């Protein structure tokens, strides 16, 4: 009888040790998975959902809304204001992104990504499209300044902006100046018309 009990105790100990080892391996595997997770993947898990996010930008400004699109180096935030619209935010322009705990956990386990064209679109590509469509924009710069106008051209690492009032179309008599703006100093780009990105 005592021998039976001894063997049962040994079996229980062995089972406990195996369970502890398996749990340790699972924890390490989860750590490795999270170590490879990018901000882009986490934001992509929010794109198209109704999960509200609060954005703190590197220039001290902020916004609230939902993530409507994610590109190679930027994301679009459908802004929750009376005016509406969208902000294009380079990843480097975001200081912190707040969301509910549920949304935070959902982004830590994103669905396997299906390759889409939007995933390869860089901010420069999107800026060139805005230039082509002549959509008025407001640019927030890292120095804390805002510039409003229409993008005339967008190069590899900069854009040409014709300055004019926010709600006016670009006309020669409305343009008050021109600026070359490096893309690296953009905090966000606000679309001033009803244009959307999805």
UniProtKB/TrEMBL annotation:
Name recorded for this polypeptide:
Chemotaxis protein CheW
């Amino acid at each position: 009888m005592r021998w039976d009990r001894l063997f049962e105790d040994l079996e229980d100990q062995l089972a406990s040790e195996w369970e502890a080892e398996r749990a340790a391996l699972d924890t390490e595997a989860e750590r490795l998975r999270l170590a490879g997770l990018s901000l882009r993947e986490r934001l992509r898990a929010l794109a198209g959902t109704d999960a509200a996010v609060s954005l703190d930008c590197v220039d001290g400004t902020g916004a609230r809304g939902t993530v409507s699109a994610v590109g190679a180096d930027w994301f679009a935030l459908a802004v929750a204001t009376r005016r509406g619209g969208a902000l294009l935010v380079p990843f480097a322009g975001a200081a912190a992104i707040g969301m509910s705990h549920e949304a935070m956990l959902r982004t830590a386990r994103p669905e396997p990504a299906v390759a889409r064209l939007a995933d390869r679109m860089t901010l420069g590509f999107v800026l060139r499209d805005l230039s082509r469509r002549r959509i008025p924009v407001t640019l927030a710069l890292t120095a804390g300044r805002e510039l409003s106008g229409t993008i005339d051209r967008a190069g590899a690492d900069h854009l040409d902006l014709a300055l004019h009032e926010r709600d006016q179309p670009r006309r020669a008599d409305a343009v008050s100046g021109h600026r070359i703006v490096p893309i690296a100093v953009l905090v966000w780009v606000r679309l001033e018309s009803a244009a959307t990105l999805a």
